[in-house]
Amino acid sequence: MRKFTTPMIAALTGLACSDAALADQPGFVSDGEIAVCTTANFPPLTFKENAGDDTPIGIDIDVAEALADKFGATTSYTTTEFAGLLPSLGAGRCGLIISGIYINDERRASYDGIRYMRSATVIVTRADDESIAGPDDLSGKMLALEAGSYYQEERVDPLNERLAEAGEPEVEVTFYPAQQGAYQQLLIGRVDATLTEEAEGAYRVAGAPDRFRIAYTWDSEFTYGIYMQPSDADAEAVRGALKELASEGFFDDLAGKYGVDPAVFDVDYDS
To answer: Which end of the chain is more exposed for a tag (fewer CB within 10 A), N or C?
Structure first.
């Protein structure tokens, strides 16, 4: 009969506990790591403080790190243009997308999306341009949009339909791989405005009030989502972790850290 010493029993017990912990981790945790896809160019949600930085920072990154801590995992980040986020998830290059991406039915038809933050769309213009005060003032003007975003479908198309019915010139749209490109075109005068998210627009304006201004904010029920491959168990794990973080005051602290209204984190995780 083989005899087990106390150290051997302790080691075996530790291995058993470790295996049990790994078994409890969601499916998007691979070898103890969560691979996260993000753009790293959408402050204050996800961005690099310096161009050469390896790891992005921001609200979304803090959320990713907090979720990883809940699941006993580490994180790695794959940065891509916005239009490449969902294809990267579909190709298995990451397990989660946390990158200021809206919840909508079309995306949820292919992936699970869990709400974590509310948002609203804003019009940003040059600081010295007072000609645009609302959507109708975009008639006949040039608008720069980030490729892959839903501003065209959600904001521009309905506006152009209304303008066409009224016999007014429609808004012309040009697309850029990243929101930063839209701002650059705005500054040099190639476009008249861009659409972005309320938190991102406020961050840009605060950093350059002599160059940009928020001209209009839509009333909105839009929410950002964490996307993953379809799995009821994994989705429930993320919802549960987000609820725990909320009860622990994590999102209140996050709002204070980035200077946003804590109410933006008041979402229904189960919807």
So the answer is: N
